[in-house]
Amino acid sequence: MLMKTLLPVAIGLAVTGWLFRDDFDPARFAGFRWTWRMVAGFALAWVFMFGRDFGLSWRFHTIARPTLSWNRAFRVNYMCAFTSAVTPSAVGGSAFAIFYLNREGVKLGRATTLTLTTLFLDEMFFVVFCPIIMACFPIDALFASTASDATFMGGVQLVFWLVYAGIVCWAAILFMGIIAKPHAVARLIKRVAMWRWLRRLRRSAFDTANNMVLASRELRSCSRGWWLNVFGATVVSWFSRYLVVNALFWGFIPGSDQLLIFARQFIVWVVLMVSPTPGGSGISEWLFTNYYGDLINSMSMALILALTWRIVSYYVYLAIGICLIPSYFSKRKK
Questions:
Q1: CA–CA dist 96, 74 (Å, integer)
Q2: Cα distance between residue 188 and residue 138, in whole Å
Q3: How does pLDDT run across 256-296, given as a tens digit for each residue?
Q4: 160 pLDDT band (50/70/90 cuts)?
Q5: Is the pLDDT confidence value at 328 over 90?
Q6: Facing residues of 88 across strands?
Q7: How many Cα atoms sit within 13 Å of 272 on the Cβ side?
Q8: Which of 83, 88, 122 is CA-nearest to residue 280?
Q9: Upper half-sphere CA count for residue 38 (Cβ side, 13 Å)
């Protein structure tokens, strides 16, 4: 497990080093000095990152009540974050939430229901807020480019719209499958799974269809207040994650456009959803330095910001996961 944990770290550092091989100047870093504003911004970034953990733990605690205490909810959250850090972004920690919830005493069937619920809430967050961001900011501001990086920004924009279209489709399927028409969607999934060239996925597809029906039975009985509660927790977690970058820019790049920085985080996280590397290692640093390059006054500062951002939002979860794994998997449960 230790070697698997070190792999994404090595990938991230290697790609970062390769990106800045021509721009790295030790003399520039020798003259770097921390100011009180930088320290305050760095500390504020940690506060917002805890807000992200609080929001997700709040959601786990609410949807799994009364089985999941606050302590267990935080533990599930950190284990999911650790899994996200050591698996490709397309897999993510949510795929393993069923296992972690079950380990914490939630029955397997209900754990599946709760996991589908969290997936639906995350997708709905993007479905709701991305159009708001697009309406508030011009495309030229969100995808600002010069002649030298026009190809890069064009690629980012293309990936964003493709991934966002996939998010909308997946959210629609989840809505129909666990709320509106669960039996109809379940029958459709099973019918498609019977196609000859999908026989390897047949068992998984059947399980997903049955789980959607089970999830629907529980979710339909939830009140409007319950839905507002768990969606509010989802908003808190995602907004807090975005504000980490705002805190760092406030501390390291005074006078930067905070609203634009916040809006661009929607683009960054949508694009990172299809990263093939563990936890987006390497891709995240590369995307950050290029996408925010027009707002940063030097490549040295871009490197410092990228690494600081990854320490707060990524590497810390590797360390937490390493600390939790021995006690977590030493529990003897049937």
A1: 15
A2: 40
A3: 899 999 999 999 999 988 887 777 777 887 888 888 888 88
A4: very high
A5: no
A6: 278
A7: 23
A8: 88
A9: 11
